[in-house]
């Protein structure tokens, strides 16, 4: 089935963890609420829209959040409660389609090309789902409707909070072309800098470069960039796709020695931790990936007795793994990455694991 013949809905709960806290504690409504464990070294799990007005967002350090919004109210996360609400939302989805691909506790893709309730359009399905979620959970959700997953996810963010946005097949190119290129999945700061150097600032700019030209600059990802710039995304909704690993990596703008990677590893750890919290899974196995300036790839792996309790703990593990790299100190690195697998439930994991107690996994070089 081609992407243009599909009807995809992306549903994203609005400020999910913080909204659950405000729903269950009326005294928090209308106030800037930050869901996070105590301690200035902790990381924000979620922020209410009132807190977001001050620039507070998930994955930010609590120390920075406190500076941006000194009057915020901090609430420790309760993942058992969030999971229960997530199950309620999932039941709503299941009334309308069996093709549900959860991305985290608070968002999912749904293929409603053939919906179970006989509604006339994907837009009607999305409206019904949002209405049922509100009625049954007293929480709002935003939704995007489009012919594919790439566009549906962009659309769900378009009218947040409590919004619905539809991209029809005839509207795809007109919608995409003015968007900043950072809206394309995989375009982070480093890639955006490379695209800027080519004069590519919008998706429209990107669409005017051929697939061959983009492949020349960016390899296989260049082909993917070209497809997305045309609104093409043939990925199917994959029900209950098992989560194998969470990972993030970055290509450095300038090759760096190993001892200069601490800040980069810290930022990657925060990104990984935020993904793990959103997906409801924190991994005991941590992988460090490095690529040298001569394109040699190295990985180092630790399996901990207990999962990390924070992004800072994850950073410490990555630094331990760096200590296992036995290349000369003069070696320069062009890429660094962190991966996490062997997942545990973040609600049941120990708060302060003994990072010294771990089972070694084989290191690999290739």
Write structural notes for this entry.
- 35% of the residues lie in helices and 22% in strands.
- A hairpin with a 2-residue loop joins strand 5 and strand 6 (107-111).
- The two termini are 39 Å apart.
- Strands 9, 10, 11, 12, 13 and 14 form a 6-stranded antiparallel beta sheet that branches.
- The chain is an alpha+beta fold and 366 residues long.
- It folds into 4 domains: 3-15 and 80-172, Reverse transcriptase/Diguanylate cyclase domain (Alpha-Beta Plaits); 18-77, MutS, DNA mismatch repair protein, domain I (3-Layer(aba) Sandwich), CATH 3.40.1170; 177-229, 5' to 3' exonuclease, C-terminal subdomain (DNA polymerase, domain 1, Orthogonal Bundle); 246-365, DNA polymerase, Y-family, little finger domain (Dna Ligase, domain 1, 2-Layer Sandwich), CATH 3.30.1490.100.
- It has helices spanning 16-24, 49-52, 62-68, 79-96, 122-137, 149-156, 172-176, 189-197, 203-207, 211-218, 220-229, 262-279, 311-322, and strands spanning 8-13, 33-35, 46-47, 73-75, 100-104, 107-111, 141-146, 164-166, 246-257, 282-292, 297-304, 332-344, 358-360, 364-365.
- Mean pLDDT is 87; it is low at 346-366.
- It is built from 13 helices and 14 strands.
